[in-house]
Amino acid sequence: MPYKAHSTPGDGGRNMEAAPTRFAVDSNVIVNLFSGDVAKADRAEALVAGGNSKPVISTQVMNEVTLVMSQKMGLSWRGIERILDDVEVLCEVVPLALDVHKEARRVAAHYGFRFYDSCIVAFALLADCEVPYSEDMHHGQVIFDQLTVINPFS
């Protein structure tokens, strides 16, 4: 997989001074590494492979990436496996547990997020991340005074 990061995590390549020390990425960040959109691929690459710390992802993210790559992108299982092997090297992959599910219910009830987005937020909270990077949530939204959602593609 070609990685040619031009910046480090922080804001998708615009201001690298404010890079968080621990951050989560949603499946759309991983999927955009392989998109035909060069700008999005470069920003995703800067987040995933360009910094001093690895992004933290849950097994939910791995599952969502697998689904998109098999159903929407039409990749072979062998190709998906190679990509996910690379993702495992580039990211800290953490399994989901019941505490994430319970926290996700609290997040969904409080913020009105879709449940799977709430799982990403709950995971980031419980993994002591400062930022969840996601294309699917409101850029700049502060969650329980602990996290600030950043859309790296906006």
CATH topology annotation: Rossmann fold
- Order of strands in the sheet with the most strands? 1-4
Stretches where pLDDT is under 50 for at least 5 consecutive residues are 1-17
Principal-axes geometry comes out as: globular
Count of discrete domains? 1
Task: Assign the CATH superfamily.
Answer: 5'-nuclease
Average pLDDT value?
87
Number of helices, where a helix is a run of at least 4 consecutive DSSP H or I residues: 6
What is the CATH-assigned architecture?
Answer: 3-Layer(aba) Sandwich
Report the end-to-end length measured between terminal Cα atoms. Answer: 24 Å
CATH class: Alpha Beta
- Overall number of strands: 6
Characterization of this structure:
- This protein has about 150 residues and is mostly helical.
- It has a single domain, classed as 5'-nuclease (Rossmann fold), CATH 3.40.50.1010.
- Helices cover about 45% and strands about 10% of the residues.
- The protein has helices spanning about 25-30, 40-50, 60-70, 75-90, 100-110, 115-125, and strands at about 25, 55-60, 90-95, 130-135, 140-145, 145-150.
- The strands form three sheets. It has a two-stranded parallel ribbon. A two-stranded parallel ribbon has the order 2-3.
- α5 crosses α6 (about 115-125).
- Mean pLDDT is about 85; it is low at about 1-15.
